[in-house]
Amino acid sequence: MSTKDYDLFVIGAGSGGVRAARMAAGFGARVAIAEDRYMGGTCVNVGCVPKKLYVYASEFGKAFEDARGFGWDSSKPAFDWATLRDNKKTEISRLNAIYRKLLGGANADILDGRARLVDAHTVAVGDRQYSAEKILIATGGWPRIPEFPGSDLAISSNEVFDLDYFPERLVIVGGGYIAVEFAGIFNGLGAHVTQLYRGPLFLRGFDPDIRAHAAREIAKTGVDLRFEVNVESISRGADGLDLQLTDGTRIAADAVLYATGRTPHLEGLGLENVDVELTEFGTIKVDEHYRTSESSIFAVGDVIGGMELTPVALAEGMDFARRQFGEPGQQVDYDFIPTAVFCQPNIGTVGFTEEEARSKFGHIRLFKSNFRPMKHTISGRDEQTFMKLIVDKASDRVVGVHMMGPDAGEIIQGIAIALRAGATKAVFDSTIGIHPTAAEEFVTMREPWTED
After folding, report:
1. Using CA atoms, how far apart are residues 68 and 414, in angstroms rounded to an integer?
2. For position 443, which CATH number holds?
3. Residue 131 within any structural domain of the chain
4. Does residue 131 share a domain with residue 25?
5. Distance CA 434, CA 131 (A)
6. Measuring CA to CA, which residue among 295, 281, 275, 13 is closest to residue 138?
7. In the chain, what is the straight-line distance between the N-terminal and C-terminal CA atoms, in Å?
8. Are 138 and 273 in the same domain?
9. Helix, strand, or coil here: 156?
10. Same domain, 361 and 282
């Protein structure tokens, strides 16, 4: 029996930390978990969950317009920001309580407060210290706003959900999925949205056809997309916030949202007291078992970099707990992890991009399809769905699937199973589709768009 207070001390009650704590406790370990902000971490409180709720809210406006073509003749209702914001708060509070109950039910001790490493086996929370055989860091990431004149006037995705007022004029700075999603949300809720990105095209890292298609479709919705431009300064003016841009123009706004990346949430963690090595990107360096350079300290989730997705953190937390306190299962496989961007329309993707596939496999075949969703043949909305299959020519295996269109995330989840199982294009072709659906297009694309 260990003489330490705990077998495992988890710092951070987000997706990865809670999963690791619950599973380790289930295996019989004595577990404590410390959290200084909110149970459930980024995803539950200021990430996936509230964002998806706001996406739902933003889609109603377009749905009211679409309905007219189907015979529903009614005026568009007014939107009330406070109702959405406060109902969201109620739902998040409910989820916070569920997380706390799950941890308590697993007999994990919950400590409210910021934990700080004292040494390789000791953690302080407030004025008390606790010893542990193993320590797991799962503190996640934190939004980053660069410093420039007036940067203190900008807000991050942490604050945007709970603004006291609805920003009628919103400027969003950034070109990643978070920036794109919020542009769609606030545009759909009725704000005039301007999105600025310093590069030539947003969504870097996604397939080039998806990036180009997204720019066209998002611009159609009314978002003012401006590429190769950045903010020089923000100041308060008579008409709200005044932004001076690098191209010499100015914009007036009610709020400026910076979505320019996230950094590991390590401030005040006490890393200076232990031998935990960081990577060049400021993330915690771990081996394949999530062990840091300090043998008793481990880390999972966004804080170690990689794919910063909630399901990935969950898988890592589960893998860690099994290896350290139970029976090791299958190691997390980072290939063919599906993801979605809840912009409007949605993006769903799994596997390799075209450039990655060419680099890895050499000769590939591409299948593409672009069409108007069936719903909009009557609604009249100018929107196009795009789908793309990437096939390794030598093996006929489908190695990449990319889509932008309604329900893309829902569709790609099923496609991801096929790719994980090694499905070939012949298997796709022999699968009977569900008609009429958009998803059936993935099994009816017969003629290659190109091959090499």
Report:
1. 32
2. 3.30.390.30
3. yes
4. yes
5. 57
6. 13
7. 63
8. yes
9. coil
10. no
Q: Is 213 a catalytic residue?
A: no
Tell me whether residue 93 is in a domain: yes
Pair (60, 80) in one structural domain = yes
Number of domains within the chain: 3
pLDDT band at 4 (very low <50, low <70, confident <90, very high): very high
Calculate the CA 272 to chain-centre distance: 30
Of the three residues 325, 355, 376, the one that is the final residue of a domain is 325
User: Cβ neighbours of residue 415 under 8 Å, at least 6 residues apart?
Assistant: 338, 348, 350, 401, 442
Cross-strand pairs, 388? 368, 402
The CATH number for 168's domain is 3.50.50.60
Residue 440 sits in which domain range? 339-451
User: Is 155 part of any domain?
Assistant: yes
**Same domain, yes or no, for 175 and 294?**
no
What does each C-alpha distance from 393 to 38, 207, 373, 396 come to in angstroms?
49, 19, 30, 5
pLDDT at 245: 98
Residue 290's pLDDT is: 98
pLDDT at res. 1: 59
Name residue, tokens 């009610």: 254
Q: Give residue 385's pLDDT band: very low, low, confident or very high (50, 70, 90).
A: very high
* Mean pLDDT of the region 63-80: 92
**pLDDT, tens only, 341-352:** 999 999 999 999
Q: What's the order of all strands across the beta sheet hosting 339-341?
A: 339-341, 347-351, 398-404, 385-392, 364-371, 450-451
H-run or E-run covering 49: helix 48-67
**pLDDT band with cut points at 50, 70 and 90 for residue 2:** confident
- Same domain? For 104 and 28 the reply is yes
pLDDT per residue as tens digits for the range 252-289: 999 999 999 999 999 999 999 999 999 999 999 999 99
The CA-atom distances, in angstroms, between 141 and each of 4, 124, 267, 410 are 29, 21, 11, 26
- Last residue of one domain, picked from the residues 226, 241, 260: 260
Q: Is the pLDDT reported for residue 186 higher than 70?
A: yes
What pLDDT does 329 receive? Answer: 79
